[in-house]
Amino acid sequence: MRIFISFFIVMASCVGLSWAQTPNENSCVVCHNDTWDEVKSSVHAQNEILCQKCHGGDPTKQDQAAAKAPETGYIGIPDKQKIALVCGECHADVETMNFYGTRTDQLARYKTSIHGKKLFLENNKHVAVCSDCHGYHDVLPATDPNSPIYPVNLPVTCNRCHGNEKIMSQYNLKTDMFEAYKKSVHGVALFEKKDISVAQCASCHGSHGAVPPGVKDVGATCGKCHINEKKYFLESVHAPLAAQGKFSECISCHGNHGVEHPTEALYQQACMKCHDTKSEAMKQGNVISDMLKVSKEELQKAEDLVKQSSIEGIFVEEELALLEEAKTNAIAMIPLQHTLSQEKISPLYQKILTVTAEVKEKIHKKYQDLKWRKIALIPIWIFILVLINALWIKYKRLKHDLE
To answer: Which of 18, 82, 181, 397 allows an S-S link to 187, with CB 3.0 to 4.6 Å?
Structure first.
């Protein structure tokens, strides 16, 4: 197909066709003025890439038959295979795309994807091709918030097909992924907080080379963002099982599309899937869970105490510095727990308990010091009151004598 299209482009230049580059000169725009309203704001129109580049034809001809003559390379409305190949004419060409700094391997990647294989090998017309995701005439840059492939919009775009029961039933695929994702820790961050750095469909499945990650690949996929978690998991007892494909590195405990914010309760929920409640592994999981729970509770108590003390006028700069140290250890425990090693987690746990206990002790001592300072003020106030009383009596006497 690529040779076919290239042939007509070369042929057109040989016979002296002048490809109209502006809307006023382009007969396609004159006839299809309603379509031009969509095209004119697109990234293609802004770079003077107009109708004939995708549909063929000679836009310098005002006669419809002449504009669509066979020698003009007119292809009309391309089918899905042609769409991929026509887009690839530019987007797979290094010389063309070099100016824009755009990758040129996307067509090749697409052909390796589930979508591409089904399209080119099975001629399956239900799969997504360039225009299904990027749009047709109104193609916008990926960085434009109105683009269907902008991170916040991408799950909705993917769900147009993957949420369609009629289409997905052909492949025995579920259609509830989008609803699960919306409620997930990733979905909440993306849709509610507008954090475009979080994982969305393409982050895990890829974009042009989209494939569902296999059991052995999940850890590498999640590890692109969760680097420390990946590192420590490789030190755990589950790592060899994951390498054998018997344990899904992240999904087994956290799930996939509906990943929730993990809490200590996950140990009970996840471990019980594989381990008996009375097993040694379950006991170890409970110990680690308790460490995380207690450290969080003790840190919260210490923070509340310091905050209240500050409100009451006690200087807490030293205690705030200690709390930062405890928080650092608590943060370090989060990825470290993936080792499932009490020996590695325990030192951080003990540091948190030690620091929070020290904070409480220091605050308690400051309250005690404040109490004694208040008690020490009592004699002074009594002396002041007695002095005031004596001066009042003296004043009354002097006043009486003067009268």
So the answer is: 181
